[in-house]
Amino acid sequence: MRRYGKHTDEDDIRSRPNRKGNRPRTHIRPKHEDAAEGMVLTVDRGRLTCLVEGRIVLAMKARELGRKAAVVGDTVALVGDLSGKKDTLARIVRIADRTSVLRRTADDDDPYERVVVANADQLAIVTALADPEPRPRLIDRCLVAAYDAGLDPLLVLTKSDLASPDKLLELYGDIDIPYVVTSREELETGGAADRIREHLDRKVTAFVGHSGVGKTTLVNALVPEDRRRTTGHVNAVTGRGRHTTTSALALPLADSDGGWVVDTPGVRSFGLAHIDPSRVINAFPDLVPGTEGCPRACSHDEQDCALDQWVADGHADPARLYSLRRLLSTRERREGD
Protein backbone atom coordinates (compact mmCIF):
# COMPACT_ATOMS: atom_id res chain seq x y z
CA MET A 1 0.00 0.00 0.00
CA ARG A 2 1.37 3.36 -0.97
CA ARG A 3 1.61 5.85 1.87
CA TYR A 4 1.72 9.58 1.47
CA GLY A 5 3.72 11.84 3.72
CA LYS A 6 2.63 15.10 5.20
CA HIS A 7 3.81 17.05 2.17
CA THR A 8 2.58 15.33 -0.95
CA ASP A 9 2.67 16.44 -4.50
CA GLU A 10 -0.83 16.82 -5.92
CA ASP A 11 0.34 15.10 -9.09
CA ASP A 12 0.96 11.95 -7.09
CA ILE A 13 -2.69 11.67 -6.01
CA ARG A 14 -5.01 9.92 -8.40
CA SER A 15 -8.53 11.35 -8.78
CA ARG A 16 -11.51 9.33 -9.94
CA PRO A 17 -13.05 10.84 -13.08
CA ASN A 18 -16.65 12.07 -12.91
CA ARG A 19 -18.33 9.99 -15.61
CA LYS A 20 -21.59 11.94 -15.44
CA GLY A 21 -19.82 15.18 -16.19
CA ASN A 22 -21.66 17.13 -13.47
CA ARG A 23 -20.22 18.99 -10.53
CA PRO A 24 -19.23 17.00 -7.43
CA ARG A 25 -21.63 17.08 -4.52
CA THR A 26 -21.01 19.45 -1.64
CA HIS A 27 -22.55 19.94 1.78
CA ILE A 28 -22.42 23.71 1.32
CA ARG A 29 -25.86 24.91 0.29
CA PRO A 30 -26.54 28.23 -1.43
CA LYS A 31 -27.83 30.98 0.87
CA HIS A 32 -30.42 32.21 -1.63
CA GLU A 33 -30.02 35.77 -0.43
CA ASP A 34 -32.07 36.99 -3.40
CA ALA A 35 -35.08 34.77 -2.55
CA ALA A 36 -38.50 36.41 -2.63
CA GLU A 37 -40.82 36.38 0.36
CA GLY A 38 -44.25 34.80 0.09
CA MET A 39 -47.17 33.47 2.12
CA VAL A 40 -48.49 29.92 1.87
CA LEU A 41 -52.18 29.98 0.95
CA THR A 42 -52.91 26.26 0.64
CA VAL A 43 -51.15 22.89 0.42
CA ASP A 44 -52.24 20.08 -1.87
CA ARG A 45 -50.28 16.83 -2.31
CA GLY A 46 -46.83 18.37 -2.02
CA ARG A 47 -47.66 21.45 -4.06
CA LEU A 48 -47.97 24.75 -2.23
CA THR A 49 -49.86 27.75 -3.53
CA CYS A 50 -48.16 30.95 -2.40
CA LEU A 51 -48.78 34.66 -2.69
CA VAL A 52 -45.60 36.40 -3.90
CA GLU A 53 -45.67 40.14 -4.59
CA GLY A 54 -49.35 40.00 -5.49
CA ARG A 55 -48.98 36.95 -7.76
CA ILE A 56 -50.20 33.41 -7.18
CA VAL A 57 -47.19 31.09 -7.49
CA LEU A 58 -47.16 27.29 -7.37
CA ALA A 59 -44.15 25.90 -5.50
CA MET A 60 -42.61 22.80 -4.01
CA LYS A 61 -40.44 22.35 -0.94
CA ALA A 62 -36.66 22.23 -1.43
CA ARG A 63 -34.94 19.00 -0.50
CA GLU A 64 -32.60 20.72 1.94
CA LEU A 65 -35.57 21.54 4.19
CA GLY A 66 -35.78 17.84 5.02
CA ARG A 67 -38.92 16.85 6.88
CA LYS A 68 -39.76 20.40 7.85
CA ALA A 69 -43.08 21.12 6.20
CA ALA A 70 -44.61 24.45 5.28
CA VAL A 71 -48.26 24.94 6.22
CA VAL A 72 -50.97 27.46 5.48
CA GLY A 73 -50.03 30.84 6.91
CA ASP A 74 -46.28 30.27 6.80
CA THR A 75 -43.98 33.03 5.57
CA VAL A 76 -41.52 31.41 3.15
CA ALA A 77 -38.61 32.33 0.88
CA LEU A 78 -38.90 31.22 -2.75
CA VAL A 79 -36.54 30.98 -5.71
CA GLY A 80 -36.97 29.84 -9.29
CA ASP A 81 -39.77 30.83 -11.63
CA LEU A 82 -41.90 33.33 -9.72
CA SER A 83 -43.91 34.51 -12.70
CA GLY A 84 -46.99 32.55 -11.69
CA LYS A 85 -47.52 31.42 -15.28
CA LYS A 86 -49.11 28.09 -16.12
CA ASP A 87 -46.85 25.02 -15.82
CA THR A 88 -44.20 26.89 -13.82
CA LEU A 89 -42.91 25.78 -10.43
CA ALA A 90 -40.96 27.70 -7.82
CA ARG A 91 -39.00 26.27 -4.90
CA ILE A 92 -39.38 27.06 -1.19
CA VAL A 93 -35.92 27.25 0.36
CA ARG A 94 -36.66 28.73 3.80
CA ILE A 95 -39.52 28.84 6.30
CA ALA A 96 -39.55 31.82 8.63
CA ASP A 97 -39.98 31.46 12.38
CA ARG A 98 -43.66 31.23 13.34
CA THR A 99 -45.40 33.62 15.70
CA SER A 100 -48.06 31.02 16.55
CA VAL A 101 -48.97 27.45 15.65
CA LEU A 102 -52.49 26.03 16.01
CA ARG A 103 -52.31 22.24 16.31
CA ARG A 104 -54.77 19.43 16.74
CA THR A 105 -54.74 15.64 16.76
CA ALA A 106 -57.41 13.33 15.36
CA ASP A 107 -58.26 12.26 18.91
CA ASP A 108 -56.65 12.07 22.34
CA ASP A 109 -55.06 8.70 21.55
CA ASP A 110 -53.33 9.91 18.38
CA PRO A 111 -49.72 11.08 18.95
CA TYR A 112 -49.50 12.61 15.46
CA GLU A 113 -49.90 16.40 15.52
CA ARG A 114 -51.60 18.16 12.64
CA VAL A 115 -50.74 21.81 12.21
CA VAL A 116 -53.95 23.60 11.27
CA VAL A 117 -52.45 27.02 10.53
CA ALA A 118 -49.32 29.03 11.30
CA ASN A 119 -48.98 32.71 12.24
CA ALA A 120 -52.69 33.18 13.02
CA ASP A 121 -53.84 35.84 15.48
CA GLN A 122 -57.36 34.64 16.19
CA LEU A 123 -59.47 31.47 16.23
CA ALA A 124 -63.12 31.83 15.22
CA ILE A 125 -65.11 28.90 16.62
CA VAL A 126 -68.25 28.53 14.52
CA THR A 127 -71.15 26.67 16.18
CA ALA A 128 -74.76 26.24 15.11
CA LEU A 129 -77.45 26.74 17.75
CA ALA A 130 -79.53 24.00 16.09
CA ASP A 131 -79.38 21.63 13.12
CA PRO A 132 -76.87 20.35 14.20
CA GLU A 133 -77.11 20.82 17.95
CA PRO A 134 -74.28 22.78 19.63
CA ARG A 135 -71.44 20.81 21.18
CA PRO A 136 -70.06 22.75 24.16
CA ARG A 137 -67.30 20.22 24.78
CA LEU A 138 -65.99 20.73 21.26
CA ILE A 139 -66.01 24.47 21.92
CA ASP A 140 -64.05 23.88 25.13
CA ARG A 141 -61.47 21.83 23.24
CA CYS A 142 -61.05 24.54 20.64
CA LEU A 143 -60.60 27.08 23.43
CA VAL A 144 -57.89 24.91 24.99
CA ALA A 145 -56.05 24.75 21.67
CA ALA A 146 -56.48 28.49 21.08
CA TYR A 147 -55.14 29.52 24.48
CA ASP A 148 -52.27 27.05 24.21
CA ALA A 149 -51.31 28.49 20.80
CA GLY A 150 -51.62 32.08 22.01
CA LEU A 151 -54.62 32.90 19.80
CA ASP A 152 -57.54 35.12 20.76
CA PRO A 153 -60.85 33.19 20.55
CA LEU A 154 -63.98 34.47 18.82
CA LEU A 155 -67.29 32.64 19.22
CA VAL A 156 -69.58 32.71 16.16
CA LEU A 157 -73.07 31.30 16.76
CA THR A 158 -75.16 30.58 13.65
CA LYS A 159 -78.83 29.71 12.97
CA SER A 160 -80.22 31.85 15.79
CA ASP A 161 -83.59 31.73 14.00
CA LEU A 162 -83.85 28.04 15.00
CA ALA A 163 -82.85 28.34 18.67
CA SER A 164 -82.00 30.99 21.24
CA PRO A 165 -78.30 31.61 22.00
CA ASP A 166 -78.96 32.54 25.65
CA LYS A 167 -78.30 29.12 27.18
CA LEU A 168 -75.00 28.65 25.38
CA LEU A 169 -73.84 32.21 26.02
CA GLU A 170 -74.68 31.83 29.70
CA LEU A 171 -72.36 28.84 29.85
CA TYR A 172 -69.46 31.08 28.78
CA GLY A 173 -70.65 34.19 30.57
CA ASP A 174 -67.73 34.28 33.00
CA ILE A 175 -65.17 34.18 30.17
CA ASP A 176 -64.43 37.39 28.35
CA ILE A 177 -64.87 35.95 24.85
CA PRO A 178 -66.20 38.19 22.08
CA TYR A 179 -69.08 36.64 20.19
CA VAL A 180 -71.36 37.22 17.20
CA VAL A 181 -74.83 35.71 16.84
CA THR A 182 -76.19 35.27 13.32
CA SER A 183 -79.24 33.81 11.60
CA ARG A 184 -79.55 31.83 8.38
CA GLU A 185 -81.07 34.85 6.65
CA GLU A 186 -78.11 37.03 7.68
CA LEU A 187 -75.69 34.43 6.33
CA GLU A 188 -77.49 34.41 2.99
CA THR A 189 -77.84 38.19 2.67
CA GLY A 190 -74.37 39.05 3.96
CA GLY A 191 -75.52 40.89 7.06
CA ALA A 192 -73.66 38.48 9.32
CA ALA A 193 -70.42 39.03 7.42
CA ASP A 194 -70.60 42.78 8.01
CA ARG A 195 -70.77 42.34 11.79
CA ILE A 196 -68.14 39.63 11.95
CA ARG A 197 -65.75 41.62 9.75
CA GLU A 198 -65.35 44.14 12.58
CA HIS A 199 -63.48 41.45 14.56
CA LEU A 200 -61.26 40.36 11.66
CA ASP A 201 -59.65 43.51 10.29
CA ARG A 202 -55.82 43.42 10.26
CA LYS A 203 -55.81 39.91 11.74
CA VAL A 204 -55.22 36.39 10.44
CA THR A 205 -58.27 34.44 11.65
CA ALA A 206 -58.66 30.67 11.38
CA PHE A 207 -62.26 29.42 11.19
CA VAL A 208 -63.00 26.03 12.74
CA GLY A 209 -66.21 24.13 13.36
CA HIS A 210 -67.85 20.81 12.63
CA SER A 211 -69.64 20.27 9.34
CA GLY A 212 -73.06 21.75 8.73
CA VAL A 213 -72.71 24.80 11.01
CA GLY A 214 -72.44 27.27 8.12
CA LYS A 215 -68.71 27.94 8.37
CA THR A 216 -67.99 27.82 4.65
CA THR A 217 -71.11 29.84 3.85
CA LEU A 218 -69.81 32.50 6.22
CA VAL A 219 -66.32 32.45 4.70
CA ASN A 220 -67.82 32.78 1.22
CA ALA A 221 -69.72 35.85 2.42
CA LEU A 222 -66.53 37.36 3.82
CA VAL A 223 -64.63 36.63 0.60
CA PRO A 224 -67.37 36.85 -2.08
CA GLU A 225 -64.96 36.94 -5.02
CA ASP A 226 -63.71 33.45 -4.18
CA ARG A 227 -66.77 31.28 -3.38
CA ARG A 228 -64.86 28.11 -4.18
CA ARG A 229 -67.25 25.70 -2.45
CA THR A 230 -70.91 25.05 -1.85
CA THR A 231 -72.57 24.33 1.44
CA GLY A 232 -73.12 20.72 2.49
CA HIS A 233 -76.29 19.35 4.00
CA VAL A 234 -76.84 17.99 7.49
CA ASN A 235 -77.66 14.30 7.80
CA ALA A 236 -81.09 13.97 9.41
CA VAL A 237 -80.12 10.74 11.19
CA THR A 238 -76.66 11.54 12.55
CA GLY A 239 -77.02 15.32 12.82
CA ARG A 240 -73.65 15.71 11.13
CA GLY A 241 -72.84 17.70 8.06
CA ARG A 242 -71.00 16.68 4.93
CA HIS A 243 -67.45 18.01 4.57
CA THR A 244 -67.44 20.68 1.86
CA THR A 245 -63.95 22.00 2.62
CA THR A 246 -61.19 19.46 2.02
CA SER A 247 -58.07 21.55 2.67
CA ALA A 248 -57.21 24.69 4.61
CA LEU A 249 -57.12 27.83 2.49
CA ALA A 250 -56.05 31.38 3.38
CA LEU A 251 -58.11 34.10 1.69
CA PRO A 252 -57.75 37.90 1.83
CA LEU A 253 -60.62 39.51 3.69
CA ALA A 254 -62.72 41.71 1.41
CA ASP A 255 -62.60 45.46 2.11
CA SER A 256 -59.90 44.98 4.73
CA ASP A 257 -56.51 46.47 5.44
CA GLY A 258 -54.44 43.30 5.71
CA GLY A 259 -57.04 40.92 7.14
CA TRP A 260 -57.03 37.21 6.23
CA VAL A 261 -59.46 34.37 6.86
CA VAL A 262 -58.37 30.73 6.86
CA ASP A 263 -61.12 28.26 6.02
CA THR A 264 -60.38 24.82 7.47
CA PRO A 265 -62.02 21.41 6.88
CA GLY A 266 -64.95 20.59 9.15
CA VAL A 267 -63.90 18.66 12.25
CA ARG A 268 -65.80 15.97 14.14
CA SER A 269 -63.27 15.91 16.96
CA PHE A 270 -60.47 18.13 18.22
CA GLY A 271 -57.81 15.99 19.86
CA LEU A 272 -55.53 17.53 22.49
CA ALA A 273 -52.84 14.84 22.70
CA HIS A 274 -50.16 17.48 22.04
CA ILE A 275 -51.13 19.65 25.02
CA ASP A 276 -49.79 19.14 28.54
CA PRO A 277 -52.78 18.38 30.85
CA SER A 278 -51.50 20.94 33.37
CA ARG A 279 -52.20 23.68 30.80
CA VAL A 280 -55.81 22.67 30.15
CA ILE A 281 -57.03 24.77 33.11
CA ASN A 282 -55.86 27.89 31.23
CA ALA A 283 -58.81 27.47 28.87
CA PHE A 284 -61.15 27.94 31.85
CA PRO A 285 -60.12 31.33 33.26
CA ASP A 286 -63.38 31.48 35.25
CA LEU A 287 -62.15 28.46 37.24
CA VAL A 288 -58.51 29.49 37.69
CA PRO A 289 -59.12 31.63 40.84
CA GLY A 290 -60.70 28.58 42.51
CA THR A 291 -57.46 26.60 42.19
CA GLU A 292 -55.68 28.76 44.79
CA GLY A 293 -56.85 26.42 47.55
CA CYS A 294 -55.91 23.25 45.71
CA PRO A 295 -53.18 20.96 47.08
CA ARG A 296 -49.83 21.05 45.34
CA ALA A 297 -49.79 19.30 41.92
CA CYS A 298 -53.57 18.96 42.03
CA SER A 299 -54.98 17.36 38.92
CA HIS A 300 -58.31 19.21 39.45
CA ASP A 301 -60.04 15.87 39.19
CA GLU A 302 -59.50 14.45 42.68
CA GLN A 303 -61.22 14.38 46.04
CA ASP A 304 -59.31 17.30 47.68
CA CYS A 305 -59.65 19.67 44.72
CA ALA A 306 -60.77 23.12 45.86
CA LEU A 307 -62.77 23.66 42.69
CA ASP A 308 -65.69 21.64 44.08
CA GLN A 309 -66.27 24.13 46.90
CA TRP A 310 -65.56 27.06 44.58
CA VAL A 311 -68.34 25.97 42.24
CA ALA A 312 -70.66 25.02 45.13
CA ASP A 313 -70.32 28.59 46.45
CA GLY A 314 -71.69 29.87 43.16
CA HIS A 315 -68.52 31.33 41.66
CA ALA A 316 -68.82 29.33 38.44
CA ASP A 317 -71.23 27.18 36.50
CA PRO A 318 -71.06 23.45 37.42
CA ALA A 319 -71.20 22.66 33.70
CA ARG A 320 -67.84 24.40 33.25
CA LEU A 321 -66.20 22.22 35.89
CA TYR A 322 -67.78 19.17 34.28
CA SER A 323 -66.29 20.15 30.90
CA LEU A 324 -62.85 20.65 32.44
CA ARG A 325 -62.88 17.29 34.17
CA ARG A 326 -64.18 15.50 31.12
CA LEU A 327 -61.19 16.79 29.16
CA LEU A 328 -58.78 15.86 31.95
CA SER A 329 -60.21 12.35 32.36
CA THR A 330 -59.93 11.78 28.63
CA ARG A 331 -56.29 12.83 28.71
CA GLU A 332 -55.58 10.59 31.69
CA ARG A 333 -57.00 7.56 29.88
CA ARG A 334 -54.71 8.34 26.95
CA GLU A 335 -51.63 8.61 29.14
CA GLY A 336 -52.45 5.38 30.96
CA ASP A 337 -52.70 3.31 27.77
Number of strands: 13
Distance between the termini: 60 Å
Summarize the main sheet: 6 strands, mixed
- Which of globular, elongated, flat, extended, rod-shaped describes the shape? globular
Helical percentage: 10-25%
Mean pLDDT: 83
Following the backbone from N to C, one meets helices and strands in this order, namely EEEEEEEEHEHEHHEHEEHH
Number of H- or I-type helical stretches: 7
Strand content: 15-25%
Report strand order across the widest sheet.
10-9-8-11-13-12
Q: Which residue ranges are poorly predicted, with pLDDT under 50 across at least 5 consecutive positions? A: 228-245, 333-337
Helix/strand structural class:
alpha/beta
Radius of gyration using CA atoms only: 26 Å
What's the SSE blueprint?
Layout: E1 36-44, E2 47-52, E3 55-61, E4 75-80, E5 90-95, E6 101-104, E7 114-118, E8 122-128, H1 136-149, E9 152-158, H2 166-171, E10 179-181, H3 184-189, H4 191-197, E11 204-208, H5 215-222, E12 249-252, E13 260-263, H6 307-312, H7 318-336
Parallel strand pairs: 3-5, 8-9, 8-11, 9-10, 11-13
Antiparallel strand pairs: 1-2, 1-4, 2-3, 4-5, 6-7, 12-13
Helix pairs in contact: 1-7, 4-5
